[in-house]
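We now fix the convention by which a protein and its fold are recorded. The integers have meaning only within a learned vocabulary of local backbone shapes. A record is reproduced here so that you can trace the correspondence yourselves:
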Amino acid sequence: QVELVESGGGLVQPGGSLRLSCVASGNIFAINAAGWYRQGPGKERDLVARFTDRGSTIYADSVKGRFTIARDNAKNTVYLQMNSLKPEDTAVYYCNADISYYIGTDKRQYNYWGQGTQVTVSS
């Protein structure tokens, strides 16, 4: 059983900063790929930033230069540093990860989602 728990959301004024954290816990062998997605009111869930399984990073055009994704493998944690926040960044932010684990000697991989954390950018 694997669980992703996000934290760090909240209310911030335009131009402000927040850092989101996503901690993975449970039966984890490796986090192969991980990232952040967001879903604004009445919108679809879209990619914000992601580490691929080859170690490269991908950012949505709307956040390039403002957001930075980082990871701490020892802590099974992925971060999203968000600077120069805008009202259009308001959304529920979700952590997503491809995680490998063992059942006995059988190695498996599964894609997990966190429960989401609300980010509101407003004056």
Summary: The CA atoms of residues 29 and 101 lie 5 Å apart. The first strand starts at residue 2 and ends at 7. The chain has a mean pLDDT of 95.
